[in-house]
Amino acid sequence: MRGTIFQQLLSLTAFATHHATTHTHTVNTLLSPHLAHHIPTHVLPSAATAVLQVRFASKKQGGSTQNHRGQNPKNLGWKMAGGQVANPGNIIVRQRGRTWHPGNWVGIGRDYTLYALRRGKIMTHRCPFRKRKWVYLELLEEEASKGSEVEEAHQGVEGEAAHEGVAVSQ
Question: Residue 97 sits in which domain range?
Fold first, then answer.
C-alpha cells in the first residue's frame, strides 16, 4: 500500500467501520512495515477514526436564550360592549390595524384605537358589500338636542360672517 500516512489512516478507518476490531491480523497486513510497529493494533481503529471525527463549531458559542422575557401585554380588544353608553373620550376598541372602522361620533387614534367623541350608545355595523365593520354612536336624546343647538348657532355665525364678508373655517 502506497501513499502518505494520512491516506493510509483514511483507508484503515473505512476498513475499521465495516469490520470488527477482532480482525487485527488483516489490519497489520494493510499497514506498511515501517508504520506497523509504531501503532499498536488494539488502538488503531479508534485512533484512526478519531482523525476523521474532529468537529468544528459552526456557530459561535452563546448562552441560553433569554430574549423572550419582559414582553408586556398589549391589552387589545373591546373595552366597552355594543349597547353600552360611552362618554366622550372613552376607549371603545384597541386594535392593531384598522379591523374596525370609525363611524359617526367615533374617533380613531394613531394606533387605531377607537374612542367616543360624544355621549351615546355604542353600535356596530357590518357592510355586506365592502366587508367592512363599523363602530358608531347613536347619540342620546340630550346629546342630540345639544348637537342641533350647536349646529344652529354655527349656522347663525356663518350667516353673520357672510353678511360682513368674512369666511368662517370649520
Answer: 77-142
Same domain? 81 vs 132: yes
Q: What is the pLDDT of residue 139?
A: 95
* pLDDT of 162 higher than 60: no
For the cut 90, the answer to whether the pLDDT of residue 169 exceeds it is no
The pTM assigned to this predicted structure is 0.49
Q: Does a structural domain hold residue 32?
A: yes
Helix axes 5-18, 44-52, angle to 10 degrees: 110
Type of residue numbered 96: R
Contact 150, 117 (CB under 8 A): no
Confirm whether 39 is domain-assigned: yes
Structural domains counted in the chain:
2
d(CA 63, CA 60): 10
